[in-house]
Structure formats: C-alpha cells, structure tokens
Amino acid sequence: MTTKASAVIFDMDGVLADTESLIADATIRMFKDCYNVALTVEDFRPFIGTGAVRYVEGPAEAAGIDVDLNQALQVRHDNFVALLEQGACRALPGAIDLVNGIADHNELLLGMATSSPQKKAEETWRAIELPSDRFDALVSGDMVTHKKPHPEIYLHAAALLGVDPTACVVIEDALTGVTSAKAAGMQCIAVTNSFSREALSDADWVVDSLLEVTAAKLAAPLVTN
Predict the structure, then answer these.
(1) Is residue 198 part of a domain?
(2) What is the pTM (predicted TM-score) of this model?
(3) Catalytic residue status for 13
(4) Which of 67, 85, 103 lies at the terminal end of a domain, its last residue?
(5) 127 and 73 assigned to the same domain
(6) Residue 224 falls inside a structural domain
(7) Strand segments (E) across 22-164
(8) Which of 13, 18, 173, 204 is catalytic?
(9) Catalytic site residue 25?
(10) Does position 76 have pLDDT exceeding 90, yes or no?
C-alpha cells in the first residue's frame, strides 16, 4: 500500500491506555456480584472493541444469563472507576510520545475513535494524563449507531477530520477494530497488546509496541508487513 496519510486515528483501550484487563476485571466482578456467575478473561476476548453493551451481552448470552443491562452497565462502570481511582491504569509504552509527536507534526491530523462511551473515555484520558485537546476529532461509542466491526465509527472520525478515509491510518489492538478500519477503506496498524501477530494479520502493519511507530513513519507511505 502506497497511499500517503493525512490523518491518524487511534483506538483508545488497549492502544493508548492499558485498560483491557481492567475492563475485563470490572465486568467479571459485576457478573459475580450481581449474578453469582464466575466468568474469566477469555469469556470476554471475542468482544474486545465491540462497545460496552456487546461486551456485557455477548458473554451473558454464551452463559445463558438474562441481565438487567442498565444495572449491569452501571455496576461495571462503577467497578471500572474504582480501579482507575486505585491507580490501576497507565498509558501504554510510547503512547503519549506518539500522540504528541503526531500532534506536533504539521502534516498530520489526529483523531481518536473509541467504542467506549464518552464518560468512560474521559475518565480514562484523565487517568493516563492524556490531554484530549491534542486531538482534532474525538469519537466515542455513544456517537454512532453501529459499533466495531462495522466501519461507521472510523468513517465518522474521517468526516469530522475532513479527510478521505483512504488517507487515514488507524492504530488498533483488536480484531474487530482491524475489521472496522479495513471496511472503512483505511490503512491499519495493529499493536499486539491484546491479540497475537497471526490473529492481527489482516492489518497492513503489525507492531509489538507503539515505540516502533513515529510521526515521520506515519506521514510517509505505509509499508505493509
């Protein structure tokens, strides 16, 4: 692929913020406290990146549990906030430097597209001390109808940035996110924070850390794996 990028769009959880284990922990606690059901991290893996509703409903359906969705989401959120307040969340290696490098790079616009609801996204930004004003466009899961793997969230981000989707590079960690980005016609870099290289092979470039990515590399035509 040789298209030169005009914009970079980040996913948040598992890309910028080391939150995937916290999200699973918060949800596992909810199922235990509300339904006395013991689930594991692996029960949630197929639903990483799909948004809060599907992340709760998918494992519940698989386990044959009828959930009160509003209550489940609220308890899950409260558990997640408690973990943030305990200092359990951190920025992933290279994340803050890469965001700042892109924001300071005159050639590139910067966006974020997270399946998380806006309130949870804002709490996460604060926890990792990531200034949201570094981004030219921010899209949360409650701003779109269809969640990943549907391309809507990334197409919406591109529209807000005023950039053709084919000139966007997405940085993702989840299978659903890679599918969403590619369905939007965008280039995709996948970081192996949540899935293996083999699982993420549909991405254009797979890295083990954001430390491997720079603003200069993103501004140049993306070289595929």
Answers:
(1) yes
(2) 0.90
(3) yes
(4) 85
(5) no
(6) no
(7) 109-113, 137-139
(8) 13
(9) no
(10) yes
Residue 71 lies in a domain: yes
Which residue among 11, 43, 173, 204 is the active-site one?
11
Cα 21 to Cα 47: distance, rounded to the nearest angstrom: 13
Length of the chain: 225
Separation CA 219–CA 222 (nearest Å): 8
pLDDT tens for each residue of 136-179:
999 999 999 999 999 999 999 999 999 999 999 999 999 999 99
25 and 127 fall within a common domain: no
180 pLDDT above the threshold of 60: yes
- Main-chain dihedrals φ then ψ at residue 77, nearest 5 degrees: -65, -45
For residue 36, what are the domain limits?
A: 20-85
* Cβ(216)–Cβ(169) below 8 Å: no
Q: Are strands 109-113 and 7-10 parallel, antiparallel or unpaired?
A: parallel
